[in-house]
TrEMBL record:
UniProt organism field: Tepidicella xavieri
Top-rank taxon: Bacteria
Positions of the Fumarylacetoacetase-like C-terminal domain: 29-223
Molecular function per GO: acetylpyruvate hydrolase activity; metal ion binding
Keywords attached to this entry: Hydrolase, Metal-binding, Pyruvate
Record protein name field: Fumarylpyruvate hydrolase
Length: 233
C-alpha cells in the first residue's frame, strides 16, 4: 500500500441518471468559439473553411455539481456565465475519424463554463495563456450525466436564465463544429479516455453575474443545470 505525505484528493465524479454508480472524471476540455453569433460577440469571427477548432482545459478539481452555491471568485470584476452542452466519453480513442467518434460517446450533460472575462481578455490581447481567466476554482459546473451511448446529439434548444430572465437562447444545430467533428479533432491532440468531458461551446448572450444571482440552464432532451452565486469568500 502506498504511503502519502498527506491524503490525496478524492476522484472528481458526477452522478449518472438512473444508476447508483458515479461517473469518474478524467479531464475537462472546452471548445472555444463554437457558435458563430458568440464568436462575433467576442470580436473574433470564425470561418470554418480556414479555421480549426481550438481548446482550453480546466483542472478536474474545478468541477462542481449542478445546484451548488459558490462564492464570487477573487481577482475579477466581470465574472461571466457560458451555457454549454457537455459530452461525456466512455471509451478511449486516438486519431479517430468523425464516423468512429460516436462510439466514444457515453452520454451528455448540461454545463456552465464560468469565466473571469476581464482576466481572459487581458491575457488574450497580450498573447498570454487564459488559465487565470478560465481555470477558476468551482468554475466548471455540470449536471448529472445522462447515458446516451453512441448517440450523436445534433439539435435541441439550449438556454440560460439568470434570476428568471432569459440571457442565452439558441440551438445545438448552430454548433460550428458538430459533436463528432469535435471528438475526432480533439483525438488528434490527445489520447482521449473514459471520463473525459468535452464542453462543446456557448451561444451568444454571455454576460456577468453578481452575488445573489441564480442561474438555470437547459439543454433540450438532455438535462438542466443550476447555480447560485454567493458573496465573495
Amino acid at each position: 500500500m502506498t504511503a502519502y505525505l498527506f491524503s490525496p484528493p478524492s476522484v472528481p465524479s458526477l452522478p449518472i441518471r438512473g444508476k447508483t454508480e458515479r461517473f469518474p472524471i478524467h479531464r475537462l476540455f472546452f471548445v472555444g468559439r463554437n457558435y458563430h453569433a458568440h464568436a462575433v460577440e467576442m470580436g473574433r469571427p470564425v470561418d470554418k473553411s480556414t479555421d480549426n477548432p481550438f481548446y482550453f482545459t480546466k483542472s478536474p478539481s474545478a468541477l462542481v455539481e449542478s445546484g451548488a452555491t459558490i462564492p464570487y471568485p477573487p481577482r475579477t470584476q466581470n465574472y461571466h456565465y457560458e451555457m454549454e452542452l457537455v459530452v461525456a466519453l466512455g471509451r478511449p480513442g486516438f486519431r479517430v475519424s468523425p464516423d468512429e467518434a460516436q462510439a466514444l460517446i457515453y452520454g451528455y450533460a448540461a454545463g456552465l463554463d464560468m469565466t473571469r472575462r476581464d482576466l481572459q481578455l487581458v491575457a488574450r490581447d497580450k498573447g498570454r495563456p487564459w488559465d487565470t481567466g478560465k481555470d477558476v476554482e468551482q468554475g466548471a459546473v455540470c449536471s448529472e450525466i445522462v447515458p446516451m451511448e453512441g448517440v450523436v446529439v445534433s439539435q435541441g434548444a439550449i438556454s440560460l436564465d439568470v434570476n428568471g430572465v432569459t440571457k442565452q437562447s439558441s440551438n445545438i444545430d448552430k454548433l460550428i463544429w458538430n459533436i463528432t467533428e469535435i471528438i475526432a479533432d480533439l483525438s488528434t491532440y490527445y489520447h482521449l479516455q473514459p471520463g473525459d468531458l468535452i464542453y462543446t461551446g456557448t451561444p451568444e448572450g454571455v454576460g456577468p453575474v453578481v452575488a445573489g444571482d441564480r442561474l438555470h440552464g437547459r439543454v433540450e432532451g438532455v438535462a438542466d443545470v443550476s447555480l447560485h452565486i454567493a458573496s465573495p469568500a
